């Protein structure tokens, strides 16, 4: 008696395994109690394995008293098969590793923590199914290549710089690219908004006010009369003034260059004479300042010399001695004390 549940698996786009035999056409040579769906060959590929008893209706059971039995499944196309898994009827009695989450000899090796519900194959440790965000034989790999979620089937949104989103929940870790918003960056900017995280406003001067490209902000239908530019931000009047100024400045520069090329001797001579005059004037001013400083310094020295020689506190005797010296120089012999003495002003005048 053949009593099995049968699974064929293949690797799909490197993200997870699928059951190729699931609900495909089946046939068996001798069915136990023909006509009863409880024992039908299709039970082997229905994907159910919660009740592996004889009457559970989830296993294909062949007739008694036959040494051989034949069963097959038609995959309906040529496929690449990763492995073949056969689950026997157990009568719901534990077999293999009794303790969930372990595999190998003596069931001493822990299944991968990324195996969903900690279920793995008793001999190889291959996960029967991966947790969301993982793939691989033992679910050791995170989703990548712009995928996330259960069996890596979900597609990431417009994450900034087209970077990988979170492998489990799909959130964009560094924000959205231009034109998108939301945690998953799958929502286009709302009306009148554009740019990164939809932070900028479309221009009111677009032909259809505030209607622009969600990524670049360019007005999609052109500009209103009097405005121009990709975003309709420049009015014609300002543009014309800028163009005129540019042309005028260009002509002035060209004129100066032409004059220099022709050798304007008068202008060269004028600037040469002006430069020589400025240099001469500077030299004269420096010399004048120098002479004034020298004179003032000489006057200060003379005043200091006079103060050192003339001391007002010498008293009356000092004046009499000066008077006697003056009288001697004039060869005038008069009796001291009877000649009228010169004033202090006259004395100072003679000494100076």
Task: Provide a short characterization of the protein structure.
By secondary structure, the chain is α+β, with helices and mostly antiparallel strands. The protein has helices spanning 236-262, 265-309, 316-329, 344-351, and strands at 3-12, 16-19, 26-28, 60-61, 71-73, 83-88, 102-103, 109-110, 134-135, 141-142, 147-148, 154-155, 180-181, 187-188, 193-194, 200-201, 227-228, 234-235. Among the domains are: 3-141, no CATH class; 143-179, no CATH class; 312-351, no CATH class.
**Could you estimate the helical fraction of the residues in percent?**
25-40%
Structural class: alpha+beta
Coarse morphology:
elongated
The stretches of 5 or more residues where confidence is low (pLDDT under 50) are 6-15, 313-338
Q: Quick one: biggest sheet?
A: 4 strands, antiparallel
Radius of gyration: 57 Å
Please tell me about this protein's structure:
With 352 residues, this protein is of the alpha+beta class. It contains 4 helices and 18 strands. The longest helix has 45 residues, at 265-309.
Summary tags:
alpha+beta; 4-stranded antiparallel sheet; two-stranded antiparallel sheet; about 25% helix
Topology:
Layout: E1 3-12, E2 16-19, E3 26-28, E4 60-61, E5 71-73, E6 83-88, E7 102-103, E8 109-110, E9 134-135, E10 141-142, E11 147-148, E12 154-155, E13 180-181, E14 187-188, E15 193-194, E16 200-201, E17 227-228, E18 234-235, H1 236-262, H2 265-309, H3 316-329, H4 344-351
Antiparallel strand pairs: 1-2, 1-4, 1-6, 3-5, 7-8, 9-10, 11-12, 13-14, 15-16, 17-18
